[in-house]
Amino acid sequence: MDQVMPANVNGNSSTPLPKPIADHPTWVGIAVGVQNYSCSAEGIWTTLGAGAVTEIFDTSCVPLSAQGAYATYIYKVWTSASPDMSASELVSVSGMLNLPGALGQHYFAKNPTNASDPALYAVWDFRGGRLKNDPNVANAWGMGLRVGQVPSPDDPVLDSTWLALTPFLVDGKPVGQIADQVFRVNTNGGNPPASCKPGSPMLNVRSVNTFWFYGGAWKDTIG
What is the pLDDT of residues 141-160, one digit of tens each? Predict the structure, then answer.
């Protein structure tokens, strides 16, 4: 991963991205979708409901060194598409991805053990995608805790931050087994404008990024 990350990726953050726990990711996917925001009484866009809602498609056939350029290309196509077109429709009608298929979905959810926790936590769910017929399908998902966060080295104003996440634990055990470490990188779009007028309608910001999943229950089964 060091060979495909910008050399200064951790230069402007007090929470740098850690090194991967393995030489190669178990899963590599491109996430195409939207990030949802509502306008607060203070005139600031805040994350709404499920936060991001994206479809994750398998990009294991694309070299890691080319994933950044590939995500940027898909982002340009996505932001040029009709406003009422979904990510899945974009892929199915264009045939541009020519990929093995859908891995699953990415969204955000509340703390499963503490209803008063206001935070939203990243979820990756492959139970209805690539692993829907796997014997271990019940564990084909995961919830993540941020352990690293850096500004996008390309455009920190427009693009979401790059992240490193580890599993959310309940009673000392991870929620799901999809990965032991996840990186969100090559972000394109996703950030809202700096301010808003209170009472403005919900804002949907289209975004594309890549996820690299390391470890997990399938680490020895994916070729």
Answer: 999 999 999 999 999 999 99
